[in-house]
Amino acid sequence: MSTNKPKSVDTVLLLLIALLVVTGFMIFYSASLGLIARDGASFVSVTVGQFLFGVVGGGSVLFLMSNVYYRHLRRFALYLFSLALLATTAVFIPGLGLTHGGATRWLDIGITTVQPSEFLKIGFVIYLATWLSGVHDKIDDWRFGLIPFASIVGIAGLILLLQPDTGSFLIIAAAGMAIFIAAGARLRDILIVIAGGILLISVVVMMRPYVLDRLTTFLDPEADPLGSGYQIQQSLIAVGSGGASGRGFGQSIQKFAYLPEPIGDSVFAVYAEEFGFVGSFVLIAGLVFLTLRGYRIATDARDIFGTLLVVGFMTLIIAQTFLNIGAMIGVAPLSGLPLPFISHGGTALMATLASLGIVLNVSKYRSYRRSR
C-alpha cells in the first residue's frame, strides 16, 4: 500500500554512490599529478578544491536532499528552474562570467568558479517532471504535452547553445526525452521531437564550425593527428597502453606530457592506462549498475512525479557517462563533458550528488500503488 511514512533509503544505491565518490577522487588525484608536474598547477587549488567543494560539499548536499520529501519540490519547481536559468544567463555579464577555451560557462565568485549549467540540469528535470506529472492524463493533447515540452527544452537549450555548451544541451535533451517517454507521450509526438532534434543539430553543425570539426574528427581521427585529432589519438594511445590490467595506480605516462585535459574530459584515458581493460570494465559496470538501480527505484516510486524525477536524473548521469567515455575510445564525438564522479569540477560533482540525494529520497517512499 501507499504510505507517506518514509522507509530507509535504498542501501544498494547509497553504497554504489559512496564507492564511486571515493574511487572517483582517487582517480582524479592520480590524474592531477600529471597536470601539477607539467603545468606547475597548485596542488591545493586542484585537489583540495575538488575535495572540499565536490566530495565534502556534495556529500552534505546529498544528505540534505535525501531528507527533503521529494513531493515538496513540486511547489518550488518553477522558482528553482527560473533561478537556474537566471544564474546560467549571468555568465554573459561582463566581469562576472569567465571565458575559457572559447566558451563562457562559468561564474567567477572570487574564491572559486561555478558552472551554473550543472544546477540548470537539476532545475530542468524538476520542472519538467512537475509539469508532465500534472498533465499526465492530458499528455496526448499537444497543447499540454508536446508544445510545453518543446518550450521547456527550448528555453534551457537556447541559453546553453549561446555559451556555447552543446554537450550539456545534448544530455539535457536526452533526459527530457526520457521523461517525456516515461510520462506516456504518444509515438507521434516522440517522432516529431526526434525529427526536430535532428533538424536542430543539423543547423548547429552548419552554424558552429567547431561542432562540424568535432564530427569530422570523429569520422576520421587520423586526418589531422597533430591538430583536431590530437586528443583522441593520445587518448587511444593511453587506453591501449593499459592492456589487460594496466600500468598501476599513478603510473600513467600519457598524463605527464601528452594527454590534454588529464583531469577533465580525458580522465577516463588516464584511468584506463593505469587500470587496463579489467579496471575500465569494473568502472563502467559500476556506473551502469548505478543507473539501472536508479531506474528500478523509478519503477517502484509511489507516484508518477517520483518516477519522472528519477528517470530524468539517472538519464543525465548515464548520457553524460556515455558521451565522455565514448569520446575517449572513439565511438562518440568529443563533447568536453566531464565524467561523472571523477572529472575536475566541484560544481559538477556537487550537482550530481544533489540529484542522487533526491533519488535516494524517492527510494524512501517506494510503493507499487501509484498516485499522481
Record keyword descriptors for this entry.
three-stranded antiparallel sheet, mainly alpha, 3 strands, 66% helix, single chain, 3% strand, 372 residues
Draw up the topology in text.
Blueprint lengths: L10 H29 L3 H24 L6 H17 L7 E4 L2 E6 L4 E2 L2 H18 L11 H17 L3 H17 L4 H21 L1 H11 L10 H12 L12 H4 L9 H33 L4 H25 L17 H18 L9
Helix pairs in contact: 1-2, 1-11, 2-13, 3-4, 4-5, 4-6, 4-12, 4-13, 5-6, 6-12, 7-8, 9-11, 11-12, 12-13
Describe this structure in words.
It contains 13 helices and three strands. With 372 residues, it is mainly alpha-helical. The protein has one domain. A three-stranded antiparallel β-sheet has the order 1-2-3, with no helix packed on it. β1 and β2 form a beta hairpin. α9 packs across α11. The two termini are 15 Å apart. The C terminus is likely disordered.
Q: How many whole angstroms does the radius of gyration measure? A: 20 Å
Largest sheet: 3 strands, antiparallel
Estimated share of beta-strand residues: under 5%
Domains (count): 1
Q: How do the strands line up in the largest sheet?
A: 1-2-3
The chain-level structural class is: mainly alpha
> What portion of residues is helical?
55-70%
Shape descriptor reads globular
- The sequence of SSEs as H and E is HHHEEEHHHHHHHHHH
What's the number of helices? 13
Number of strands: 3
Q: What would the average pLDDT be, to the nearest integer?
A: 89
Distance from N terminus to C terminus (CA atoms, Å) equals 15 Å
pLDDT < 50 stretches: 368-372
